[in-house]
Amino acid sequence: EAMTEPLADTEGGFLGSGAVEKALSLLEGKSALVLGPGLSRHEETGKFVRAVMEKLTVPAVLDADALRRLSAHTGLIKNCSAPLILTPHPGEMATLLGLSSKEVQQERLHIARAFAGKFGCYLVLKGARTIVATPQEDLYINMTGNPGMATAGTGDVLCGIIGSLLGQGYSALESALAGVYIHGEAGDRVADEKGEAGLIATDIIERLPEVFKELGEGIREDF
After folding, report:
1. 219 — pLDDT class (breaks 50, 70, 90)
2. Which of 93, 119, 155, 172 has a CB 3.0–4.6 Å from the CB of 78, allowing a cystine?
3. Which three-class secondary structure string do you get for 112-168?
4. Which run of H or of E encompasses 7?
5. Residue 222 main-chain phi, psi, to 5 deg
6. pLDDT at 28 (0 to 100)
7. Which of these, 176, 106, 164, 103, lies nearest to 139 by C-alpha position?
């Protein structure tokens, strides 16, 4: 279950520079960080994100608002000393690159490979057939998942899965590949049982234990 820690906020209730020291202290002795979902797009929050990135030493998953707050500071991605996994949807990818979502979708493979190579990160470009690109410009295409998963919160679930794998000591590549596969497989099981219409993020979470269990037992041999 979720456990919380209080962090200093601004008058508007956003995280800002005053929360950086406490956040970094909380990372001491930890194995991984997930940063972005629900964070907000406030400029003070952008300062928080950038300050944490400058001193980051543990592997991290960056998504959502963290990506948007780094769009004008992509050098922080390239210069980060810790392994990074970025998990943008096409709109967030477009913001990072100053393109339109349509342009991203038209050149998904090329854009994913080029970005991961240029910035030395692992890129998970979400969408139909999610792509994982590596700093060495290798590409992997995931075959699990369905259109019903294009709904609010499912990307946050993916971040959590990848972050949990990083926290267990898996490499950034292993965490990204396994996380994407497991996320899609759980979503496919929901779709098989209930249909794609009305599928929500918590449905995916509920199916994760059985997917982890079967993978651990070696029942599924296609991964």
Report:
1. low
2. 119
3. HHHHHHHHCCEEEECCCCCEEECCCCCEEECCCCCHHHCCCCHHHHHHHHHHHHHHC
4. none
5. -95, 15
6. 96
7. 176
